[in-house]
From TrEMBL:
The keyword Lipid biosynthesis does not apply. The keyword Membrane applies. SUPFAM superfamilies: Aquaporin-like (SSF81338). One of its GO terms (cellular component) is plasma membrane. This is Aquaporin. It is found in: Membrane. Its main location: membrane. Coiled coil: none annotated.
Length: 266
């Protein structure tokens, strides 16, 4: 009996250790990645955008290249969302659990605020004032109206999240080039829309500078537009773009497969 109890205690301690390791790998480590990754993305992006020689091209490549590196480095841990809209799209697509999605978004927002505060300390006062603290604002010189800004943010975020779902998550089209493709999609979006809205695509990226630099003009656009874009992208993936193993509802006929549907007629 004594030996049996010893073995049971050993087995119990191993099970407890396994649970702790599982908790760390599946929850704690991904949360840390979202916090640190978002902090680095927003810090380097704002830092480049607010430098003395900062312009749209420099800001676009600072954000895009930083995202490429983070995706390649940490993508296998959390998916490296770094953006509430991406997390929302991935959740709707059925690829992340609701409680983890909520924690991801909280970490992303905290990281965005912290990054904006750090950039405030690193950048000269003149440069900081000139770039409005890195805040995303509508271009009043070109007379961009609120509804135009809303539509722009919707479309660029829709494209961004759609690309992520197709090249990073989809079982059939997943590719090792995902970090490069996603990063350059961000670069292209910023180059396209940066002069009109600042090309946020990311509420966590916009909220931090808004708080630190006290720039709240039309700030709601940078939540509603991107979140709608991420939502529609997730729905479109779940019901249209995804392959059979991930699309909803599941095909009823086992005989029907995508090879027969998409194969060329010879």
């Amino acid at each position: 009996m004594h030996r049996v109890r010893i073995f049971e205690n050993i087995r119990g301690s191993r099970d407890a250790q396994h649970k702790r390791e599982s908790l760390f790998i599946t929850i704690i480590r991904p949360i840390i990645v979202e916090l640190v990754g978002t902090f680095l993305l927003v810090t380097f992006g704002l830092w480049g955008a607010c430098s003395t020689s900062g312009n749209i091209i420099q800001g676009a490549f600072c954000f895009g290249c930083t995202l490429m590196v983070l995706l390649a480095s940490f993508g296998h841990i959390s998916g490296t969302h770094l953006n509430p809209c991406v997390t929302l799209g991935v959740f709707i697509a059925g690829e992340v659990r609701y409680y983890l999605a909520i924690i991801y978004v909280i970490m992303q927002i905290i990281a965005g605020i912290g990054a904006a505060g750090l950039v405030r300390l690193l950048v000269s006062r003149d440069s900081y004032t000139q770039c409005h603290g890195g805040a995303t604002l509508l271009n009043k010189t070109d007379m961009i109206e609120w509804w135009q800004g809303l539509i722009i943010e919707f479309f660029i975020t829709f494209l961004f999240v759609t690309v992520i779902l197709l090249v990073a998550l989809d079982t059939k089209s997943k590719t090792g080039l995902a970090p490069l493709l996603i990063g350059f999609t961000l670069v292209g979006n910023i180059l396209t829309a940066g002069s009109y809205t600042g090309a946020s695509l990311n509420p966590a990226r916009s909220l931090g500078p808004a708080i630190v630099a006290n720039q709240w003009t039309d700030h709601w656009i940078y939540w509603i537009g991107p979140l709608l874009g991420g939502t529609i992208a997730g729905i479109a993936y779940r019901f249209i773009w995804a392959h059979q193993d991930r699309r909803w509802p599941k095909p009823k006929s086992k005989k029907l497969n995508e090879a027969s549907v998409t194969a060329p007629i010879l």
